[in-house]
Design a protein that fits this description.
There is one protein chain. By secondary structure, the protein is α/β, with parallel strands linked by helices. The chain folds into five domains: 120 residues, GIY-YIG endonuclease, CATH 3.40.1440; 194 residues, Rossmann fold, CATH 3.40.50; 189 residues, Rossmann fold (3-Layer(aba) Sandwich), CATH 3.40.50.300; 58 residues, no CATH class; 98 residues, Alpha-Beta Plaits (2-Layer Sandwich). It contains 19 helices and 28 strands. Strand 20, helix 13 and strand 21 form a beta-alpha-beta unit. Helix 1 packs across helix 2 and helix 1 packs antiparallel against helix 9. The longest helix has 20 residues. The structure holds adenosine-5'-diphosphate (ADP) and zinc ion (2 copies). The site of one zinc ion has 8 residues, from loops.
Length: 707
């Protein structure tokens, strides 16, 4: 007798009809079992989703059979399938796309025999436990937070100042969970793995006693073989701790009992292509799902069996609002480790650039302050969120600018290799000898980037000596300086070891690093974000500046003398007033008031429909047509969803593709969800019409980061 199975295979992104396919199998297979099945002329990887109970209408002749069962790998758990199902539904993608993308690519490619060999090799690891490492004594704050977290039955937000010791809290919380239950697993997520080598080594150090291979990392820079190995270790339960980037939230972790989301406010938790999921939001959902599965007894006050801990010094306004509404538990660590009483962190100084001659790059007072630090052997960090030498190259005779031929953006002038580079599509050319339009040889850079800042600082500080008499060393860290393998690590090491006096960099340098000798941080030109059309720009700017500020004075002895300088044309802006007071809560209150008045997240819920086409008209025409179709069809939830007119995206043309978008807003998340799900088939129908042949693709972004 045959068994009829619903099997999920890789399917195109939005075929809303692309649910599981039905296959026959001689033996019963458990849900979650990995199999190989024929699809067209190929044989592909699939996941058994369920056994079909309505098999009466199927006949053996019409249904293909499962080709092979990967029985060396345990079935994926109900929890994992529940998570994938939710993610696919919520972010409006097909189940097959999300499920298969969450599995390591090599699982799709390796034959059964190769796979069996891998599995055998993986099983050989894990020598016996080593002695437990000595643990630092907890601060009173850390102690209190850990006690409260141990009883938490809600998602928990650890609101801890930079340097307050959040990492130690994560490590202890993890340790407690791992020791309480032999099969327990912990997932620790970070925004970018490269920027957190310290966390990686601390995790390895702390949990080495569990045995080799018990801490694995999962991120997109692994080779396919490494990724498969790490994934298998997590799936088999051999790895007890998984450290990873956003993709790790979809890993198979059958023993998951704790999820830590470090720097939970970071935008890189939101996937920006394919299924545009928020790893932070999925972490919350996943912990709840696991807890339900493990049998939380509501109202008993017992801790949730799977807990989630978000950490940040500048939480996302979504998480902050959830705490205000008591949906999340908030635990505070306001003080830095080892800080003196009343020490509230570096002093913030606002430099009014309106008082400086036009075009001043660095105000003399700031230069003076930097020079003083160099002279006494302390380090400075200068932050400018723009790489390259200058954002535009221009001809003042005829008005030519270094426009990208393929995008609606200027190409950035890179002086070091004398190139013009588009930071959006990558289109690169050598700098022309003269203006391409009029031949004028005096084409000049406009504005400034990190390269120019580095050059300028080196010139201004050239005569200065360090305490040992050697010349000043200025260095730069940004996406350009760190392209080579290991480049970032060695540049960071230069800073840690005190070889660098002044470090110029983009936001890469502001995140997370525990530099010990910085007493001055400066933000050179943050004003762009104050009046951006992107409603999250102020939130991001505030977080960046607080983060940058947190790099200064990390040694208690220097804390009092440490400063953060901000060069701005708007010293009276309320955002800077909050920054001066190190007052995230005040900033959040102001910002949430604006958001509430405007019905923006977290008060309203948004989705974007994006369309790409060869012409802007074609892109917008599609959006108009599907909006019209939605109204005609009277879609469920439609009464509570506002559709805004189609508009060009802020980067309208990218690599010769025209882009347009339409905003959808609703005060009700369920209404928006209902509407989107019902809209999907209409989108596909309209897309198929001859009138929309010019359309290249469309995609829905639920809870978009920027609008
Ligand atoms: P955060 O992540 O909150 O910015 P860190 O976890 O980087 O802070 O901690 C700041 C510094 O304090 C680190 O150098 C860390 O090793 C140290 N630290 C943390 N907890 C303790 C403790 N209980 N005792 C001594 N030092 C600690
Ligand atoms: Zn010209
Ligand atoms: Zn371009």
């Amino acid at each position: 007798m045959s068994h009829w199975l619903d099997i999920v295979v890789a399917t195109p992104a939005h075929s809303s009809v692309a649910g599981p396919l039905t296959y026959a199998s001689e033996s019963p297979l458990a849900p979650g079992q990995l199999v190989r099945v024929p699809l067209g002329r190929r044989e592909v990887l699939g996941v058994v989703w369920a056994e079909r109970c309505d098999a009466g209408s199927l006949s053996a002749g019409q249904t293909k059979s499962v080709a092979a069962v990967l029985d060396g790998i345990d079935p994926l758990s109900d929890g994992w399938r529940g998570l994938i199902g939710f993610a696919a539904g919520y972010y409006q993608r097909s189940l097959g796309e999300v499920a298969l993308a969450a599995l390591p690519p090599q699982l799709r490619e390796l034959g059964a025999l190769q796979l069996a060999r891998r599995l055998k090799r993986a099983a050989q690891a894990a020598p016996g436990p080593a002695p437990r490492p000595a643990l630092p004594e907890l601060s009173a704050q850390q102690q209190a937070v850990l006690e409260a977290f141990a009883k938490a039955h809600q998602p928990t937000l650890l609101f801890g100042a930079t340097g307050s010791g959040k990492t130690e809290v994560y490590l202890r919380a993890a340790q407690e969970v791992l020791e309480a239950e032999p099969g327990a697993q912990v997932l620790v997520m970070v925004p970018e793995i490269n920027l957190t080598p310290q966390l990686q080594s601390r995790l390895h150090e702390r949990f080495a006693h569990l045995g080799e291979g018990q801490v694995v990392t999962l991120h997109s820079n692994l080779t396919p073989a490494q990724r498969l190995k790490a994934w298998l270790a997590a799936h088999s339960g051999q790895a007890r701790v998984v450290l990873g980037t956003r993709m790790a939230v979809l890993a198979s972790l059958p023993g998951l009992r704790l999820i830590v989301v470090d720097e939970e406010h970071d935008p890189s938790y939101k996937q920006q292509e394919g299924a545009r999921y928020s790893a932070r939001d999925l972490a919350i959902y996943r912990a709840r799902l696991e807890s339900q599965r493990l049998g939380t007894v509501q109202g008993t006050g017992a801790a949730a069996p799977c807990r989630v801990l978000l950490g940040s010094a500048t939480p996302s306004l979504e998480s902050w609002q959830a705490c205000l509404k008591d949906r999340y538990l908030r635990l505070d660590m306001p003080d830095r480790i080892g800080a003196a009483q009343g020490d509230s962190g570096p002093q913030v100084r606002l430099l009014d650039m309106g008082q400086q001659p036009r075009g001043t790059l660095l105000a003399p007072a700031l230069m003076q302050a930097i020079a003083e630090r160099v002279a006494c052997g302390e380090q400075s960090l200068i932050f400018l969120n723009r790489r390259g030498y200058a954002p535009v190259l221009a001809c003042h005779d005829c008005g030519w600018k270094s426009q990208c031929a393929h995008c609606s953006a200027y190409r950035v002038f890179h002086k070091l290799d004398r190139s013009l580079r588009c930071h959006h599509c990558g289109y690169t050319d050598p700098v022309p000898r003269g203006c391409p339009d009029c031949g004028n040889v005096d084409i000049a850079p406009v504005g400034r980037g990190t390269e120019k800042l580095e050059e300028h600082l080196s010139e201004l500080l050239a005569d200065l000596r360090r305490p040992d008499g050697s010349p000043v060393r200025v260095a730069r860290i940004d996406a350009d300086s760190t392209r080579g393998k290991g480049a970032l690590q060695s540049q960071l090491a230069q800073m840690h070891e005190g070889h660098t006096d002044v470090l110029v960099g983009t936001q890469m340098v502001t995140k997370g690093h525990d530099f010990r000798n910085i007493t001055l941080v400066a933000a050179v030109n943050p004003d762009g974000s104050l009046f951006s059309s992107d409603f999250r720009a102020p939130e991001r700017l505030f977080a960046l500046l607080m983060q940058a500020c947190g790099r200064a004075g990390r040694q208690a002895s220097q804390s009092g003398r440490s400063q953060m300088w901000v060069q701005t044309l708007h010293p009276g802006h309320p955002l800077f007033a909050s920054l001066k007071r190190h007052d995230y809560a005040g900033f959040a209150q102001d910002e949430l008031r604006h958001r509430q008045a405007a019905g923006l997240p977290p008060f309203g819920h948004a989705a974007l429909l994006r369309a790409e086409a060869r012409t802007q008209e074609a892109a917008q025409e599609f959006l108009r047509a599907v909006a019209e179709a939605a109204v005609q069809a009277g879609l469920p939830g439609g009464q509570r969803v506002v559709l805004y007119p189609a508009v060009p995206m802020s980067l309208q043309r990218l690599a010769n593709v025209e882009r347009a978008q339409m905003l959808l807003e609703s005060a009700s998340r369920p209404a928006l969800q209902q509407f989107l799900a019902a809209w999907q088939p209409l989108l596909a129908q309209v897309r198929a019409q001859a009138a929309h042949r010019g359309l290249i693709r469309w995609a829905i972004d639920v809870d978009p980061l920027s609008i």
